[in-house]
Amino acid sequence: MRLRKEGRVQRITVKEAAQELSMDPQCLRYMMRKGTLPIGHVLESEERCTYYIYREKLDNYLAGKT
Q1: pLDDT above 90 (res 4)
Q2: What are the tens digits of pLDDT across the range 11-22?
Q3: Per DSSP, which regions of the chain are E strands?
Q4: CB contact set of 20 (below 8 Å; sequence gap of 6+)
Q5: How far is the C-alpha of 55 from the C-alpha of 66, rounded, in Å?
Q6: Domain-by-domain residue ranges, the chain?
């Protein structure tokens, strides 16, 4: 898990978020690219996509506070 210093945004991996959501990582990636899973954002380039998943957004989503 990637953590930043206290007071900063905490990010987690696709694999960790998928486990917490009980879904396949590929499904999570697809939903984030389509904008239907509000737990972070995706940076898309010609070569690849980079997924930024934030602990607070994931916790809010899991708590039903989207």
Answers
A1: no
A2: 999 999 999 999
A3: 11-12, 40-44, 49-54
A4: 58, 62
A5: 13
A6: 11-62
